[in-house]
Amino acid sequence: MGRWLALDIGKKRTGIAVTDILKLIPNGLGYVETNQLLPFLQNYTSKESVEKIIIGYPKQADGSDSESMRYIQPLVGKIKKAFPSIPIDWADERYTTTIAQRSMIEGGIKKMKRREKGLADEIAAVIILRDYMEANLPPTIHN
Questions:
Q1: Cα 130 to Cα 96: distance, rounded to the nearest angstrom
Q2: Exposure of 19 by Cβ count < 10 A (0-12 exposed, 13-18 middle, 19+ buried)?
Q3: Alpha carbons 129 and 79: distance in angstroms, whole number
Q4: Nearest CA to 7 among 115, 81, 90?
Q5: What is the structure's pLDDT at 57?
């Protein structure tokens, strides 16, 4: 049993989020420069069991592919080749960056900290993972 790892791939940076081992809570894992994503994943998967990778699928408001798929698709191909035993799934990432920015403001994060672009990428990855978990895991029973 492994964790689920979510990626919000951007041209410059990739936000990363991961579930706990029981897949109850999504947590931010930080961000890396996108050109360092494969080495990061190799290092992380050598230490932690990853059951699935969820990748944010950038779409336009009308549902068509975003322009960013030009550079995301080849990178996903490299990830599949490097980790053939880990299934990859896509999750709609529309509006996650906007939601991340709003969450930082509502959470009281100071303006200087909000300018740290990687933070928004990490929060967007958490949102992608949370939404994916809600859609793909059975609800927990509370007494």
A1: 11
A2: buried
A3: 18
A4: 90
A5: 87
